[in-house]
Amino acid sequence: MIYQLVILVSLAVLTAIVLRNLIDLRGLPAERSSADIPFVSVLVPARNEEYNIRACVESLLAQDYEHFELIVLDDGSTDATADVLRDLLQDDSAQRLKVIDGTPLPEGWHGKAWACHQLGREARGELLLFTDADTVHEPSGLRKAVGGLQESGADLLSLTPRQDMKSFWEQLIVPVMYFILMTYLPLRMVSRSPRGAFCFANGQFLLFRRDFYQAIDGHEAVRKDLVEDVWLCRKVKQAGGKVVIFNGTATVRCRMYRSFGEIWNGFSKNLFAGLGYNTTMLFGLVAMTAMFYVVPYGFVISAFVLQSYTAEMFWLPLLQIKLALLCRILVAVKFRQPVSGSLLHAFSQLMLIAIASNSFYLVRFGSGSPWKGRRYNFSGRAR
């Protein structure tokens, strides 16, 4: 009975965090709060993005902001990305567009950090927006983001884009990212606390003040950090800067992965790395995931089989399941995700456990995490 009550109370606390985060994660301001119109460099690293790059670039060129440049770096793509970019350069609307070829990846860097580092050196803007090649932006997005940065006085602004999910596996697994964010991290502390434990940023949209980006040594400071966005947030805080996050579902959308293999490899690459290769934290996450979101179903099924509808075997686990599903549905609505996917919440958590195990295996016993033709392992000696 004590075990069931502890789990229930824990889930009630997590539900309270979700409810508070729903309030705190607000959308971007509708208008700029200042007449100042800083020059913005919009920077897009692209490696093997032939299916995404056209929509991304065209949406960025269509921004209603008055003062920006757009630089795309082709990071050694082996598909038709370079051909698409050359075609885009021929368009009359591409006067703002500049395309550069990336140089070979040096030892001790991961690909995205190296690509962004090169883009930062090319940029002329007072503000630097790093955004992924698989994003699509509303025309007002840049204007509103600049307004949000000015209004908040932040040194780094990040958004939570809407995640486009078309296949079964995307709808099952991709929402786990925002569920973890909304459940375990009090978002108001990201901007209010200097502690590195309260950090979040999304590499799909990072808007920096140039002087602060340079003060923290930019992406060079996170050249070995595969989850570079969160570690950039920590670098900004360590340097005394301010980080803010906004709900970007009305501003930016992104389709991160298109197949089960991409989802499996992408999340496996990031999960253990995002925990700083801390084995205790990884298995702590696995244990909490199992106890909070999987084991209660085992009790309820056992109660049906044994016809034992006691509080310990049935009613308390059932209440735990209801709290978990409530949180999952609230997060889905907040981020414009299919609510129907919430009914598979337990299966998505089982997939999270499987991905965490694979992420650990690749680092500790494998040859590193594969991604877009490269393998990464910057763990040193995992703890």
TrEMBL record:
<dbReference type="Pfam" id="PF00535">
    <property type="entry name" value="Glycos_transf_2"/>
</dbReference>
<feature type="domain" description="Glycosyltransferase 2-like">
    <location>
        <begin position="41"/>
        <end position="213"/>
    </location>
</feature>
<dbReference type="InterPro" id="IPR001173">
    <property type="entry name" value="Glyco_trans_2-like"/>
</dbReference>
<keyword id="KW-0328">Glycosyltransferase</keyword>
<protein>
    <submittedName>
        <fullName>Glycosyltransferase</fullName>
    </submittedName>
</protein>
<keyword id="KW-0472">Membrane</keyword>
<keyword id="KW-1133">Transmembrane helix</keyword>
<feature type="transmembrane region" description="Helical">
    <location>
        <begin position="343"/>
        <end position="363"/>
    </location>
</feature>
<keyword id="KW-1003">Cell membrane</keyword>
<keyword id="KW-0812">Transmembrane</keyword>
<keyword id="KW-0808">Transferase</keyword>
<feature type="transmembrane region" description="Helical">
    <location>
        <begin position="282"/>
        <end position="307"/>
    </location>
</feature>
<dbReference type="InterPro" id="IPR029044">
    <property type="entry name" value="Nucleotide-diphossugar_trans"/>
</dbReference>
<feature type="transmembrane region" description="Helical">
    <location>
        <begin position="313"/>
        <end position="331"/>
    </location>
</feature>
<feature type="transmembrane region" description="Helical">
    <location>
        <begin position="168"/>
        <end position="187"/>
    </location>
</feature>
